[in-house]
Records
---
Amino acid sequence: MAEIIRLKAPGGADQLEVASVALPPPAAGEIRLRQTAIGVNFIDIYQRLGLYPLPEARIPGVEAAGVVSSVGADVSAVKVGDRIAYAGSPVGAYASERNLPAWRAVKLPDDLSDEVVASVFVKGITAHMLLNRIASVGRGTTILVHSAAGGLGQLLVRWASHLGAVVIGTVGSEAKAATARAAGAHHVIIGRDADFAREVAELTGQRGVDVAYDGVGGTTLRKTLGCVRPFGVVASIGQAGGPIPPLDAEELGPRRSIMLARPSVMAYMNDAESYRAAAEAVLAAIAAGILKGDGKPYGLSEAARAHTDLESGRSSGALYLKV
């Protein structure tokens, strides 16, 4: 029997319950994974809230690491005993064991722990998408990262700084400002009510940033539009601060002449070529020390508490469930 975390009904963290299910043998093209560490992401919260409906099993989660315990027919790329990580669909990662498509499996090097990888994998793939596919970030680029001390925020800051970009971060407290600076942010704007558009203008000589990453949503996105130079890019990547109000196309241009992206990392990971390239880049960046995987652990049965901590902003950095 596999222990799972199941959603009783869309809503708060109290709707997550512990249950047990019997797993069928892996089908052709599938593997069974005994999971050891499961990443916790904001997408899991959106699944819990019902913004992204779950399949019939009602098990959230999109990534984990563990050991292959059995394989179905026609599987040759991985074998029993291999340590692997995976990310993407089908969702259902909050489980002690599960079956999944073999093509999702990414073999892990011996020097990377399951816990480190589970702290970074999906967020790292998201950062890869944002720094490469949405806009090419490198030397000479100036970017704005909201929630720069969060799990994804820190990875964006670290990777962009390594690529030579100038990074401006926003955070809610002095303690989180120290975290963002330690990750490599060159400038940090502090305070939930800070006039970050004005401060960005001052920091960039009124030019604005080349790219802004906004996972806050709510009223923040509209303010973020005012932080970007003409022909720059705003990437709306979440709504941790509340639903995004309707935007009029006139707010983007022609006066501002900016581009708004609303990318989905799930769609990015559904393309096998993009998924494999991003996964390998993330593992290489972890091994090189560019990305740090020092997440906070919770037991599988503590998934509700992990959601509450992530949703409230009490946590800094990544969270994962230890099985």
---
Amino acid sequence: MIEHYMQYIKEDESLDDLQLNGLHLIQKKQAFRFGVDAVLLANFAKVKRNMKVIDLCTGTGIVPFLLAGKTEASHITGLEIQEEMVEMAKRSTVINNTADRLEFIKGDLKDLKLIRSIEKAEVVTVNPPYKLRSSGIINLRDKNAIARHEICCTLEDVIAASRILLKDNGRLYMVHRPERLADILCLMRKYKIEPKTIRMVHPNTKKAPNIVLVEGQRDGGEFLKWEAPLYVYKDEGGYSEEIDRIYGRI
């Protein structure tokens, strides 16, 4: 069946099996490709039946496709500033026959007129650029740099857009780096998205966390819960049981 869709794949692209309900994703062979962060974010987000979801900084749409396979969300919208990424995500939608549930929009989340024109959702997910624009020498036209550095948007831009996009009491789910946690919590409070849950992700039990998952609620009450840490690898090597479960291997 997939062979039929190879006409949609360009020479510098690959069609990758998500190992989830037969879903596949088009990605560049050499450019930025999704990693464990996106998988953890899609697993962390609590999406109930018939909810609407908006995924910011969606890239080639990995989080929307994972959520489409894992949840009964009625509609998932991905917003991405890079036209080439959006075009790839749209081709993935054709291949997966998910046009009835998935929509991808090319746009800048700093464009408040655009943000206000999008129908509000119960859930917003985001895997934003992690690195400050000032951190290291970067090529402002480099697609990988745009994915990793705050070139096109800052953390504050992301949270400000989320505030507008969320319905009353809607939830924001973000994956980021632990060293930015103070910034995340302060900005969420600034935009009245109350931090609700934090979960640290460690390479193994002997190493410090290198990923943080944060849930916030629009106009929520003050109560913050820390979840048990998640370990990606066992100390003796190999993926942890929880990671294998998240990836659907067990």
---
Amino acid sequence: MADQTPFTKGHGTENDFVLVPDLEGARPITAEQAARLADRRAGIGGDGVIRVVPTSFASEPEVLEQASAARWFMDYRNADGSIAEMCGNGTRVFAAYLRREGLETADEFAIATRAGVKVVRFERPDLIAVDLGTWRLAQPQIADAEGFDALVHLDGHEPLSALTLDLGNPHTVVALPEAVDLDALDLFHGPVVNPEPEHGTNIEFVRPMGAGHIRMRVHERGVGETRSCGTGAAAAALATRFWAGDRGDSWTVDVPGGRLQVRMLPDHHVELAGPALLVADGTTSLV
């Protein structure tokens, strides 16, 4: 029998992940292995794979530099095996795993990601908040008078106006016209963004529900449509707030997998809060 590797399955508002502990830094995961783990028919299944490894064992210099601030590195890959900077829902699931395993015991601690150090805070057992760090408009120099800088092409619809944001990973937020039904959108096939982002983008489709309240669906790069996206929820709230004239610092974001809270912080930081659940443990072969 091939060597068996432990894993944990978890999710944040049904954005699900396979976590693989590598506490000695001796079990790097390849793109092919991550894709097999995330496969919903031939593997365990998930929107992404998270390797739990001490930051001091990171191979990337920009991550290794975070070792003095954060003991643990969230080595994240998308479901297709591609490397991603971070994942908002994934940070909460990662933090919940660290706490369960006794690797972190405080109510607040930092974790390392490819998008920099993120601080997580346990407000309640069922509610974890994470400071996602700074955000910015990705290309304000080309935004039009209504606050759009991109077009998203989706089968069966006229081009949809959108705004691109950088939250450590790329997002394109679509303001849906009233005539377009959010629930009826076909997101099986990836939308096309113009101008095309160099490293791809997550695409959020947003419907305002009232003051400080939006609904959202998302097509994630390297994955497809997911039930939730944490940084996407933050990007959607930030874009909607921008279009509304920067009104409101607290937002409720409903996604197919549940509900998230987004809060704008000083110095262009943004916070995401929501649940994280660990639902299964087991072993598997990485061969």
